[in-house]
Known about the structure:
Elements: E1 5-6, E2 12-13, E3 17-21, E4 40-44, H1 51-59, H2 61-64, E5 74-78, H3 87-95, E6 98-102, H4 108-111, H5 113-116, H6 118-140, H7 158-174, H8 183-190, H9 208-216, H10 218-233
Amino acid sequence: MCVLLKGGSDARILCPMLIFKNKASSYPMQKLPDKIAGVCYRTSPSAFIHEHLMCEWLREPRCWGPGGPFASSRVLWMGNTSGHCGDGVEDTARELRTKVKLFPANATDKVQPVDRFPIQRIKENWRRLAERRNMEAIRNGDWKIGASSSGKLANPGKMFILKVAPECIRLVNLEKDKNGGNWAKKAMVQCGLGVPRDGVWKIGQLSRELQQVVAAYPEAFEEGYKEGATSASI
């Protein structure tokens, strides 16, 4: 699942893209229309994203709105991109007025907002909805049949996954912390990619781990902070 967080005052998790395994990379797949609200899908032989799919994701308006010469410029921060971020992605992003920036290698858990809170909450809601489906299947006697069944429940199928994904995103976006903010906003602020309610960026808003990094390398932080401020003013 490709998940994108939108920052700003209306921070939230946007429409995800699911990638199903298909040897021929067929799209749309037979009997699986890509028409479910709040989600879209593509396919690949490995079920993992690659450079071509990354370009399609950038062009998919359902994921994060239209881009182009008349759209507002935007910045896309990404992590874990070694297998799908090449020259083609850079060219596509440029066409869509999108600046691609990469998180530091091997630091995803500390600086990637999606990994800070949202993914955990998506997984928790997914688990709950899947368990509800399994209980209904048991009550209905929906068991897998055939020699390889081994008493297992029948596979719910890809359509079930397409319906569960946007519901999980919707539920997580509705969740609030004690200060009334959602998980996307909280994650963006703690990773330094957003500002708190007062609109002022400060070291104290960062996660404990990132504050420790700043304290350990004050000169490097100051240099990077000045460089970032200069870039933002251009």
